[in-house]
Amino acid sequence: MLSIDILLNAIVTGILLGSVYASLALGLGITFGILHIPNIAHPTLVVAGAFFVYTLTQWGLDPIVAAVIGLVPFYLLGVVLYAFYSAVFERKGGANVLQSLTLFFGLSLVIEILLSLGFGSELKSVSVSYIGSSLKIGILTVPYRLLIPALLAPVTIAAVWLYLSRTSSGTAIRAVAHEERALSIAGLNPASVKRHAFGIATATAVIAGAALIMVGPIEPFAGRFQIGRVFAIVVLAGMGSIPGSLVIAIIIGIAEALVSSYLNPSWSPGVAFAILLLGLALRPQGLFGAAR
Amino acid sequence: MKTRRQFHKLVAVTAAGLAAPAIFGSKVFAQDKPIRVGASVSLTGPLASTKNGQIGYELWRDDVNAAGGLLDRKVELVIYDDQSSAANVPAIYSKLVDVDACDVLFSPYGANLSAPVMPFIKQRDLFMIGMFGLAGNDVAKHDKFFHSGPWGPNSGRDWARGFFDLAKAQGVKKIAIINADLEFSKNAAKGGAEVAKEYGMEVVFNQSYPPNTSDFSSMIRNINAGDPEAIFIASYPADSTAIIRGVKEIGISDKVKLFGGAMIGPQYGALLGSLGPELNGLVNSHTFVPEPTMQTPAIKSFFDRYTPIAVKQGVDPLGFYIPPFYYVAGQLAAAAITGSKSVDPAKMAAFLHANAVDTIAGKIAFNEIGDWKERRVLMVQLRGIKGNDLEQFRNPGHQVILDPPSLKTGDLAAPYNKARAS
Amino acid sequence: MKKNSLLFLAGVIIVLALGFLMPWLLRNPFYFFAGYVVLQYVTIATGWNILGGYAGYINFGAAGFFGAGVYLSAFLFTTFGLPLPLCILAAAIVGAILGVLMGYLTLRIQGVYFAIATLGLVVVLETIVHNISGLGGASGMAVYGPRPPAWSPGPSQYNFTVMVVIAVASVALARWVEISWIGRGLRAVRASEDAAECSGVPTLRLKLVACALSGAVLAAAGAPYPFYTSFVEPVTAFSLIIGLNAIAMPLIGGTRTWVGPVIGALLLASVQQIATVTISSELNILFVGAVLIAFVAFAPGGISDLFGRNKGRARP
Questions:
Q1: B250–A146: do the CB atoms touch at under 8 Å?
Q2: Contacts of A248 in chain C (CB under 8 A)
Q3: B-C interface: how many C-beta pairs under 8 angstroms?
Q4: Residue numbers of A between 232 and 291 with CB closer than 8 Å to B
Q5: What is the pLDDT of residues A184-205, one digit of tens each?
Q6: pTM value?
Q7: pLDDT value at residue A93
Q8: A108 at C interface, C-beta within 8 A
Q9: Fewer Cβ close by (within 10 Å): the C or N end of chain C?
Q10: Is the preceding omega at residue B324 within 30 degrees of 0, hence cis?
């Protein structure tokens, strides 16, 4: 009864969901993985991005177009957030993890409440023509509702990674994580480089938000359920390894899909962390991280 | 040393701050004081979508006060936010009773939030109207507790029996059951499995899934592999959407006659609007729909006033599922107070046990543990939905009542795939 | 040092005496309901600080230990009828074991990974509880507590007194850790783990001890909870709010000494309790969020640090 088509379909679904997780984790991969700022508000920013996309789709725009429009305001939001963060911490010679965590926790509470005041607590979703139909390839049935958001992840991740590795301002971002002093000797202002990086990270939240709201309806508090998973992805990939996070996210997605197909869906929330604990025990620097 | 001294100072200040309300909040029993009705509502957190019930409370209070109050006393609502967390409930109800001196209590929403308050009201012998808690009083068996919701007796097992009655009438032999791993849906599925067994149906698939699951394709494939003739689903709003979409994407066997049962979500405007025609054919539970057998001038007037407020507050503009029963809770309390001419819990409870009460949701009589004597959960089939306009749901014919027979407005359209396409 | 300890002992006796006497002096039960929650957070913040404050290892998983305590005590009480003190003891032991296990798995790696791994502990434990039907799963489990003993006027007062005892015991434990060789070692770990290791401090063993003590206190804080709510279910027992308050409270109070978490918990928990029954709307949570941001921004060393600095300035 449990035939090859159920297995194959489960794997495909896992790949798609994994890609969506990768979108969610991308911004955190930059802020936490490269800048070492534990931005636990990132999932909430993604939800804020989803609400932004929702608002524009109410005017008849496609969610992806809406997300592209959202890049600029979310970039600016990120710049403002980082300016605030650095005003609080950098002048004291850097933040300790504890204080940053609390700051971002406070921030996520504020964002959640502002969203629920602004949009109400009802579930919001987008309806687009391609949601509800599927692509059929042989025995595979691939819903567009998952396929389109899943395609966003590799595209965005590739764009971010090309930017970080091929352009000089991107290289500066990666450099700032390693050696701030050298960067300022080279004539670059580390603060503005970090601000720029934080802006990019926050801009990815609106793309992830578009993916999230296409997959299923959201409410203002939806970010909380994602915190654990996205941190697991960033840490497992190895801090700072952006392409690695896509691979890890897909592994987690497949593992969850297989567990819920063959074992019981009620065990699937534990999957990401079981993999995380295993990974940390075997290879503490992450699967794709360079051992520094 | 110095920190300790400051610490003691701080303790003193905190203690004084905690003690202060006691001075202001002392009990006053004078007759001209308002009657206080205390409640906890989930304004924030995962259950915040139930907060539109508060409009029901407030409309009731305004109506009662406009008519001169109860026993010539004004009615005052005291409402706190439990943040959808059971951990906040004990302190809130102690505040309502011990500091605010409320005469009547309304429970928080649902069984999980109400459970912490049951031993408290039993031990202190207080009068409470329960809000939507399934089988909320079946353990405590408190004799001064009354459900405003229409779950009926033995609700843990029986509240969704209508679905299985319909399935039985269709000659269903094999059934699949899935549920979200949350209190309400878990109990619904457990009760459903028992009823299915009682009716001699084989449960070919029975699985629970974690909250916030967004993809059901593998589960739907597994269900299809079991070849059921009916699928009973107990889900919450986000997963209801994902399941409906998943069925559309993956497809389901033509043998399935009934699909739905206990899905939360397709009662609310948000989901009706976003899914629209995708909901056609679904057979689901409900508490009120504007069908000719249920529509009365009283409840129509309620919704005429509810809708503008709801639109202003950004909550569900339809509000069929929860808000009328929050108004009913008020009407039950009012009947108990005026009927017994007192706010004494024992007298109020005795009145409700002895008399049926007329409310906007019809005439209600209670059994000894405060369940409605008759279950009046509706099984409705969604039909003829076109586009995403919410206003169509205010007209009859889109949410046809199949069960209970006394309120029936149409027959089941089956199989599901055919009803879905119509 | 000696004089300090005597003063502390006197403070402990006074607080304990108040814990037993207050229920007879103050008639209104509400204060014992609210006070219970405040004291619960004093215990949680204190327990968290043993590892998080002294050693600088951030534990996101306070709710995991707390929830384990909640469910263990609910299970032991409903199946074996164990009395409350034994439930608390059992919870503390299991919490300590859980702490050591957790530490053994993850403490060899960097602090930040440890933090993430603890977040996983909560999810894993919650998933397990969801899947054990004997614990009620998602439907929860009703716990009708024992009759309070004669020396307490009612169940809410009894729970309050029990919580006073637990809180005092944890604060005393935290103070002892702080002034003993363990505390000195942990401070060295916090300052520079490599340097500590090189100068012969047994860092791993110290961290494991801290994990065990911290876990024991956090689990003990959860043990009376089933009797407070008469009902347990996984979502509240493993609530994210507990884990985040456990971090926020020491931070607000100050993490270097035992006083900080106590002040932070008394303050933040009281504010939360008062806000719940006064503001009572979305603005309540907005307010807590704003307070957190304000503290991090303007008083990063916490209140105890703020007081100390002012004092220093006043008397140069």
A1: no
A2: none
A3: 139
A4: 257, 260-261, 264-266, 268-269
A5: 677 777 888 889 999 999 999 9
A6: 0.85
A7: 55
A8: yes
A9: C
A10: no
- By the 10 Å C-beta count (0-12 exposed, 13-18 middle, 19+ buried), B25 is classed as middle
The fold for domain A4-282 equals ABC transporter involved in vitamin B12 uptake, BtuC (1.10.3470)
Specify the pLDDT at position B24: 43
Q: Where in chain B is the domain with CATH 3.40.50.2300?
A: 25-150+312-364, 158-286+383-421
Query: What letter does residue B34 receive in the DSSP assignment?
Result: P
- Ranges of each domain in chain C: 2-239
A156 touches chain B (CB under 8 A): no
What is the band of A19 on the pLDDT scale with cuts at 50, 70, 90?
Answer: very high
Which of B315-324, C192-201, C267-276 shows the highest mean pLDDT? Answer: B315-324
Q: Measured between CB atoms, which of A222, A261, A269 is closest to B218?
A: A261
Which of chain C's residues have a Cβ under 8 Å away from the Cβ of B119? 144-145, 230
C28/B22 touch (CB, cutoff 8 Å), yes or no: yes
**C122 neighbourhood in chain A, CB within 8 Å:** 228
Q: What is the dihedral of CA C105, C109, C113, C117, to 10 degrees?
A: 0
Residues of A in contact with C291 (CB under 8 A): 106
Predicted pLDDT at A222: 81
Determine whether the interchain pair A109/C292 forms a contact, defined as Cβ–Cβ distance below 8 Å.
Answer: yes
CB nearest to A216's CB, from B241, B250, B269: B241
- pLDDT band of residue C289 (cuts 50, 70, 90) is confident
Q: What is the mean predicted confidence (pLDDT) over B22-34?
A: 54
> Residues of B49-84 as b/e, b for ≥16 C-beta within 10 angstroms?
bbbbbbbbbbbbbebbeeeebbeebebbbbbbbbbb
Interface with chain B: mutation pick from C36, C147, C235, C259, highest number of B CBs within 10 Å: C235
pLDDT tens, residue by residue, B312-321? 988 899 999 9
For range C109-128, the mean pLDDT: 77
B149 within 8 A of B132, measured Cβ to Cβ = yes
Residue count of chain A, please give it.
292
Chain C nearest-CA distance from A135, in A, is: 34
> Tens of pLDDT along B144-174?
999 999 999 988 888 889 999 999 999 999 9
Q: Using CB atoms, which residue from A38, A106, A232 is nearest to C290?
A: A106
List chain B residues with CB under 8 Å of A60: none
pLDDT on residue C112: 65
Nearest to B126 by CA among B150, B100, B155: B100
Contact list, C112 vs chain A (CB under 8 Å): 36, 38, 97, 235
Name the percent of chain B lying above pLDDT 90. Answer: 65
Task: For residue C223, give the DSSP letter.
Answer: T
Q: What is the pLDDT of residue A260?
A: 83
What CATH code would you report for B25-150+312-364? 3.40.50.2300
Architecture label for domain B158-286+383-421: 3-Layer(aba) Sandwich (3.40)
DSSP 3-state of C315: coil
Beta carbons of C214 and C59 less than 8 angstroms apart: yes
Q: What is the pLDDT of residues B341-385, one digit of tens each?
A: 999 999 999 999 999 999 999 999 999 999 999 999 999 999 999
The three-class DSSP label of residue A20 is helix
Asked if residue C266 lies in contact with residue B17, where contact means CB atoms within 8 angstroms, the answer is: no
- Tens of pLDDT along A198-251? 999 999 999 999 999 998 888 887 887 787 788 888 888 877 788 889 999 999
Q: Which of B97, B98, B182 lies at the smallest CB-CB distance from C138?
A: B182
Instruction: For residue A88, give how far its alpha carbon lies from the nearest alpha carbon of chain C (Å).
Output: 5
Which residues on neighbouring strands pair with residue B403, listed in sequence order? B379
pLDDT of residue B52: 92
- Contact, B274 vs A131, CB < 8 A? no
